Amino acid sequence: MRIKLEKRQEPSKLMQVVTPIASVLLTMVVGVVVFDLLGIDGQRAVIDIFLTPLLASYKWQDVAVKAAPLIIIALGLSIGNRANVWNIGAEGQYIIGALCASGVGIAAGTAGGPIIIITMILAGMLGGSAWASVPAALRTRFGVNEILSSLMLTYVALQVLSYLVGGPWKDPNGRNFPATAPLQPDQTLPILFSGTTVHLGVAIAVVLPFVFWLLMSRSVFGYQIRVVGSAPNAARHGGFDGNQTVWLAMLIGGGMAGLAGALEFAGSLKAINLGFPSGYGFTAIIVSFLGRLHPIGCLIAGIVLAVTYVGGQVAQTTVHIPNATAGIFQAMMLFFILASDIFVRYRVRFIPSAKAVVQPAPGE
Amino acid sequence: MESSIAPRLQLTGITKRFPGVLANDNVSFSVRPGEIHALLGENGAGKSTLVKMIYGIMQPDAGEIRWNGQPLSVSNPKAARKLGIGMVFQHFSLFEAMTVLENIALGMDAKIHARDLEARIREVMEQYGLKLDPHRTVSTLSVGERQRIEIVRALLLNPKLLIMDEPTSVLTPQEVEQLFVVLRQLAAEGCSILYISHKLHEIKALCDTATILRGGKLVDTCDPKVETSRSMAEKMIGAGLKEITKPAGRSLGQEKLVVNRLSIPGAGPFGIALKDINFTVRGGEIFGIAGVAGNGQNALLLALSGEVLSGDAEAISIDGAPVGQLQAKSRRLKGLASVPEERNGHAAVPEFSLADNTILTARDRLGMVSAGLIKAGAAKTYAGEVITAFAVKALGPGATAGSLSGGNLQKYIMGREILQKPAVLVVSQPTWGVDAGAAAAIHQAIVDLAAAGSAVVVISQDLDELLSLCDTLAVINEGRLSRPMQVAGADIEEIGLLMGGIHGEAPTTPTAELELAHAH
């Protein structure tokens, strides 16, 4: 009996849907087994991480607020990933976006209202794009790999953040803690449902996937991204400029990460301290792949990953496992989704073992 | 004789099924010791599948293979080689940066010391008159020389059966002659040869028997020396061949495409640079560019299509307007369409539907875009027009390009460009890997486009194709283009020598080649 991988004539549409779901289920199964082997109640841990946040209605607002930045960042990253432009530095672009929004807030002083809020959001997007333009320029001008440069710039962004919150932007009334002053009430994003923490950013995260869907499926820009990603030579033949595509992908990826940072700042945290970077920029890479680079997929995958964040906190109190456990589950999901990707393009065939050579030629 | 000695190879009722396709359907034939046996058929007729089963890459679903009279099941190529079955593939598996000797050593099943191996290689080469320096780096060798490595590799195993898959598709006429000398000598020594080809005159010249396959079934086993090329072609296609009809008394129009001192540096360490290329194509003219693969054809296509820009705007002009520094998109709007040789991934996106593939090159000329949005309906309609006009076998505009057979996809791509009515069409290898029926349709479409007043450039390795299609012909060798010559009255020997590069052919062979040339 042999197992053989056979290339499919066309990528399987069914598998494109099945593999992300199977990856989540496999992660849960493996999680149960591994935690049981470690002497922890694995079943309980997995239930708390994956199901409790969905079943307990009071957790829904947490899930929504955490899903919003993940979805928005993942939408931007998916554009790049489709065009084979690998922006790993969304975390840095997210930080810079939040800092730019914060800068607008500080400059506005006590002024508030929609104009200030919109300016903050735009500043966040521009800041994220500007941060992403560095790897884009390096790649298109000098052929520098954008994976490395965008990742390294994340650490530069962290330094910028700690300099600003510990120095020029430190809250004068903050008892010397390294943090900015909180936003004025009329500088923060409106809350959608009173009594909850669900802010305008959540609505944006729900609407944007549909905008991106339209963009990717109907516009020449979306066509360009798809062609460059699946057949770069055909793209050149069709007259699409490779460098221009790198620029667009990086600017959109950075802009979306910056937007997420600004919304998170103006909607949830309202001040920036050293704890602001939460790894959303990295987790969004998982969201992007779990969502199969499809805008609606990103919406669903963003919710799944947000559930694990919230569930990780639940499991912390119920089965006393560290919060980092959620990270392990997220990484497992990425591992399984990348590994199972092969089933989209190949099918598995079981072949009965061939008979042995019966008769070697005489005189050999 | 045939009855007294068991056949070297006998196939009985071989059947192989792939999902949705019956690749081989009850195929039976036999090969005698020392026989040169042709396996003839269109693309997709099942030739490759059949030899893959003989060489142990695949297993038949039904039927029996007998080797010297004994039933046989070859589980893998290594077992096949052990039995004395050698194969020279159409696409070589060689490491460009390594020497001939290193490449052969890597492919050996048994470990032999480099010095002994070199001695054996020299012995085999001397025996068969193959000229090759074992210490040359592969990247410096011509395609013909690279093929010699593969042949030597197979001969080192003292094969009793040698399978040659389309061996002459990349050779000059002189190299083909040299190859035939080797194959005839091998056969005289008792080695059977299974020769896969679609070049009928070669089969007539070389083979003792021809087995013709069509749609996976055996059509006929015949003596090619008795058959005519036409009768074999008709068996292969299963219908009468359509002749290309050129309208009589054509007069050429104005100069449409002018290439003037076009030079482009080579891309990468193995890239070919274009050196000072000049030619002019007039409306109604079909201009052929012959040459052995890897002599700058690809670079020339990219330079003409605008995928690689020239430093000099005047180097290329369309209808008198300099376009040397315009991108592919802008050149298309000026009326230049192009079809590169690689269908999947260059001329078309395999994962995209046929409708989406029209957007790739027709979006601006045919107004498929407004305000940045794609008019999906327009793309679908145009794809449908191309499918109908060029008789493309496809499920419809929604079928992915990758699901089409090579010939059908090529018809589709040619149709996509031709129906845009370009002023200039540049095509590379228009019928490579395309079955004879589709090839005839493509040739006719090219002729019709020229008759309607367009200038056409055809880059091809198939000299027969160029001679039957073109008005004017030039040869590309090492990035240089020869002077154009009229096809009517062209000297085949001269073209062959130009293809081999009379100035710069490998230092080990020029005497042999010149002798051969003079012998004719």
Automatic annotation (TrEMBL), chain A:
Membrane topology: Multi-pass membrane protein
Compartment(s) of residence: Cell membrane
Cellular component per GO, a single term: plasma membrane
A GO molecular-function descriptor: transmembrane transporter activity
Chain ranges passing through the membrane: 21-40, 60-80, 92-109, 115-138, 150-169, 189-216, 246-265, 271-290, 297-315, 327-346
A Pfam family it matches: BPD_transp_2
Record's keyword terms, sorted: Cell membrane, Membrane, Transmembrane, Transmembrane helix
Species of provenance: Devosia insulae DS-56
Official protein name in the record: Sugar ABC transporter permease
Coarse class of the protein's main subcellular location: membrane
Keyword Cell cycle: no
InterPro entries: ABC_transp_permease
